[in-house]
Structure formats: structure tokens, C-alpha cells
Specification:
With 166 residues, the chain is α+β, with helices and mostly antiparallel strands. It has two domains: 72 residues, no CATH class; 62 residues, ACT domain (Alpha-Beta Plaits, 2-Layer Sandwich), CATH 3.30.70.260. 55% of the residues lie in helices and 23% in strands. The protein has a three-stranded antiparallel sheet, covered by helices on one side. Helix 1 runs antiparallel to helix 2. The radius of gyration is 29 Å and the shape is elongated.
């Protein structure tokens, strides 16, 4: 798969170089600029074709590193804070008949409950007058803090509950 992407990228670069040379040669032949400007354009095209892949790789590496740093900084298990835990995240699913103003009602209720809307997805099911709308709301509650346990601690609690006499 990577080989195919590399071949497509290489073909695109060759096409871009070739078309740049054709345009520059046509402009030189029509007398739009002199030979010095043509040489500068050819030099700029060659320089950009050689340096662009290396610069692109450096930019990709830079943003990948930024992504890793961001994910590490937002990891709730590694955050240093007040020790009270992370905010509670909720997924609210609502199915209702199609009516006017549903989204406004959702927004008002979320504001009343002090919930922060992270994502909203709406899906219409069916056609006609008896259609239903499913709305998925992904929200964060800043007023409730929860402590996240590591997987090992969760397994120990589960095994202790399974071994306890009933």
C-alpha cells in the first residue's frame, strides 16, 4: 500500500515538474520574459522538487510529536492536579418523533444542568410523518469528579468480588 502511495506521489511530482517546464518554455518562446528569468524559474522548480519531500517529512514529524505531547498532557491517569479526579463524561441517547425545535430544547436542558457539549450527532430513521430522530449527545459534567483506576486495580476488584461468598 505504501509503495502505491509513493508511486502516485512520484508521478504527481513528475507531472508538476514537467508542466512547470512547459509553461516556462512557452512563456520564454512568447517573449514574456528573458533567459535569465527562465533560468531562475527552472532553478526554483528544481530546488522546490528536491527540498519539498524533506520539508514535508520534517513537518509531519513535528506535528506527530506535538500530537504525542498533547495526548500525554490530557491523559487523566498522568495529570497532576488536586487529586479529586477527572470530569464525568456522559453519552446521552434520545429517540423522539420529528418535531420542530428539538435541538433548542436540548441546548436549554444542557445549560440548565451545566453540562458542556462535546459532540452532537443526529440521525433520522424512517421517512414520512412517523419518522423518528435519534440524537446522540456527548457531554462533560465538570461538577462531578471521578477517579479513574488502572486496569490492574480494576481486575483485582473484579476478582475479589467474584471470590467473595454470597
Amino acid at each position: 500500500m505504501c509503495l502505491v502511495a509513493d508511486l502516485i506521489f512520484s508521478a504527481n511530482c513528475i507531472y508538476t515538474i514537467y508542466s512547470s517546464f512547459i509553461i516556462a518554455a512557452f512563456a520564454l518562446g512568447e517573449g514574456l520574459f528573458n533567459a535569465r528569468i527562465y533560468a531562475a524559474i527552472v532553478w526554483a522548480v528544481l530546488l522546490s522538487c528536491i527540498s519539498s519531500p524533506f520539508i514535508l517529512l520534517q513537518v509531519i514529524k513535528y506535528f506527530n510529536q506535538k500530537q504525542v505531547e498533547y495526548l500525554a498532557s490530557t491523559n487523566p491517569l498522568k495529570q497532576k492536579g488536586d487529586g479529586k479526579g477527572s470530569p464525568l463524561y456522559l453519552h446521552i441517547k434520545c429517540r423522539a418523533p420529528v418535531t420542530r425545535g428539538q435541538q433548542e430544547i436540548f441546548r436549554e436542558k444542557l445549560n440548565e444542568l451545566n453540562l458542556v457539549l462535546i459532540d452532537r450527532r443526529t440521525n433520522r430513521q424512517g421517512r414520512g410523518l412517523d419518522a423518528t430522530v435519534q440524537t446522540d449527545l456527548y457531554v462533560r459534567d465538570e461538577t462531578i469528579k471521578i477517579r479513574l483506576q488502572k486496569i490492574g486495580a480494576q481486575r483485582r476488584i473484579k476478582s475479589a468480588l467474584q471470590e467473595s461468598p454470597r
